[in-house]
Predict the structure.
Amino acid sequence: MNGIPLPLVVCLVSLLGLAAGTLGGLLGVGGSIIMIPGLVWLLAAGAPGEQHAFQAAAMVANVAVAVPAMLRHRRAGTIDPAAVRGMVPAAAAGILLGVALSNLAVFHGARGERLLARALAALLAWVILVNLHKLWRAWRPSPPAAEDNGTPARGPGAAGGFAGAGGVMGVVAGLLGIGGGALAVPMQQQLLRRPLRRAISNSATAMCVSAPLGAAYKNLTLGQHLPADTALAGGAGAGLLLGLMLAPTAWAGGRLGARLTHRLPINLIRLGFVLLMAAAAWKLAVR
């Protein structure tokens, strides 16, 4: 990939996993929104199937980010049981549907891969706007009341809302190769009135189930995006190979990021989220 010697590839990808894991654990987004643009930046050489391989790798590493993050959030007591019951089944079904959609003919070839990259960039642009609005509200002369009152959402309406958030999260995650938290976190905030730390915790918990399913399905079907004489190192196993390079440091980063979620000021977390989304969106838009 891109003519880089294998030892250097391992080193760079491992560092990328650490950065993505830390920021993903901090923000509840799985890390793919950093991993995919990072892999494009480091390794893209124009070979057919690269975007799909990078998505498959990021989905493997998402598991390593989500699990330690979820364990930390559980110890902190910020997971809503009702939210998880609604989100997990819907996210699991949704991610399988999303991967199936990503395998449609429209997403094959260079044009289809650019379409996937730009769809992810558009999603991130929307997330940026949502969080800029939140920052503006927080920094007004009369900011809103404290964000986390610790009260879980209840009732059939809330349960249906969480299931809807989980389903949308899963479909988009499977289609674009992300964890889904970049969408599920603001959805919970805007539509279900969940505070940021709880929304992050709920998303990380749902990803513990949806991410392994999506990663397995995407990697098993990766070969259909590669020509028989593919120049992609690792062939149909490229996604799994890269994912295994990312996973160990992503795991460590996920533990660190989840710890920081409960220590850093909420607006500092949100500002970092916005800056991260902007960099990732730009890189994907020019793919």
Q: What stands out?
A: The CA atoms of residues 36 and 54 lie 6 Å apart.
